[in-house]
Specification:
single chain, about 280 residues, mainly beta, Cyclophilin, seven-stranded antiparallel sheet, 3 helices, about 35% strand
Amino acid sequence: MSVRIISTGLYTTIQDAGRAGYAHQGIPPGGALDLPSYHLSNTLINNDISQCALEITLSGPKIEFLDDHIIGLSGADLSPKINGEAITMNQSHSIPRGSVLSFGRPLSGCRAYLSISGEWDIPYWLGSVSPMTYGECPVNKTSILTKDQIIPIVSTNLRSASVALSGRKFSNELEVMLGPETEEFSSQALSTLFSESYMVTDSANRMGYRLSGPTITVPDYQLISSPVIPGTMQVNSQGQIIITHRDGQTTGGYHRIGVLTEQSLNDLAQLKPRDTLTFKSLMT
C-alpha cells in the first residue's frame, strides 16, 4: 500500500519523535517541531504515537492515495480537502483509493501533521527517520518530500469508524526559564525582554527562530562556544533574539538569556513569519 506525492508544498518532511542522546556528537534531536500535535495525529488513527508522520509547513502538498487508507490530521489548520471537499481537523478520515488530499490557505498555526495508518517503509538513521540536511554528510534525504515520490506503507489497522479529539490551542505568550547567563544581563535588559513584543522574521526555520524587536543589551564580555539545546534563547551582538529549535546546532557563541519551556517550544513551532509574540518569566 502506498501514496504518491503529486506536489510537495512549501516544505514537507517525514518526521518522528527524533533521535535523543547524540548532542555530544554535534547531532541535534530533530523530530516533529510541535510534538503534541504530531502525537495527536497518530492517536487519531490508533498508530503508535511515535510512528512516522508528515510535517507540513504553511503551504501543503498534494497527495494521491493509491490504496484505501485512514488518516489523522492535527496541528495547524491549512484548509485540508479530499477531492476538493473540505475535511475536519483533529479527526480521522477514511480515504478511498484514488482520492487526492490537498490544502488551501492557512487558517491557524504554521505546521500541520498528517499520519497514515500502518508502518511506513522509510530509512532510519540513529533510530529516527527525521532528516538532517546540513553539514558534510546529510542523512535521510528521502524524508524531504519530492515530486512523484512514492511512500510505501504497510497498513495493519484499517477501520471505518471516525474518531475526533480536541486539538490543542496555540499560544503566542512563551514561557521562559533561567538560562546560563541570565544573571549576567542587566535588570533593564530583562525588563525589556518581558515587557515588549517581538516579531518572527522570515529566517525562522526548523533550526531556529530569529526575532526582531527592541534591542537587548548584551553583557560586556565575549562568550566561548557553549552548549545549547532546543529552546535556548541567545542574544546576538546586535541585541536580537535567536531561539534554537529541534534541528538547531548543539553549540553557540552568544549569551543565553533564557530557555523556553517544552510547551512553549511547541507553541513557537506554530508561529509563522511576521507573527508577534511575548515572553512570560518563570525565573525565580
